[in-house]
Amino acid sequence: MAVRQTDSDSALPADEALTDLYAMHWAGLVRLGALLLRDRNRAEEVVQDAFVAAYPRLARLRQEGTALAYLRRSVVNGCRSGFRHHAVEARYLASQAGSADALGRLTGESAETAVLRHDDDEAVLDAVHRLPQRQREVVVLRYYADLSERQIADALDISPGSVKAHAHRALTTLRDSLEGAP
Asked: What pLDDT does residue 117 have?
């Protein structure tokens, strides 16, 4: 008697492949997203969405050997969407800031925030966060994820020459910003 293969059985290799990808790259992708967003919780959501989106495409991605590149690009794009959403929230909060019951209204800076503001690591992260989006992405992918110019170009869908230009501008801006900091 032959055993009939069910739909769930045929999905098993894709499930195992996704599980392996998840185990190998989850933490690194979350760190990448956290550096781009400066919010680990939002970064985890972005990475979860990237893995969910990769699942139906996994067979093709594995054949082409581009699964990790696809996940990186998905994370970067998800972070971009997160920034757009954050900008909308910030504009709304700014428009409501004058009201006494405004969401998130603070009367002053906390002691913890004041101490962190003077921390060298925080100063670097602040300076990176102030970079234009594309420059920030290039710096994080280059110096955190340790990707080559070609890999960064693939992840961001730009030319390697653009990667070099964005990196040069970003490093110049960071150097000027950090040398002028107290």
From this structure: 54
Q: Which CATH number is associated with domain 12-97?
A: 1.10.1740
Least confident of 28-32, 118-122, 139-143: 118-122
Best CA proximity match to 35, nearest among 102, 104, 125, 160 = 125
Please tell me the distance from the alpha carbon of residue 78 to that of residue 61, in angstroms, as a whole number: 19
Across 43-68, average pLDDT: 86
The hierarchical CATH code for the domain 110-182 is 1.10.10.10
Ranges of each domain in the chain: 12-97, 110-182
Which of 117, 114, 96 is CA-nearest to residue 105?
Answer: 96
Token look-up 């080559």 returns: 148
Q: Give the whole-angstrom CA distance, residue 88 versus residue 93.
A: 9
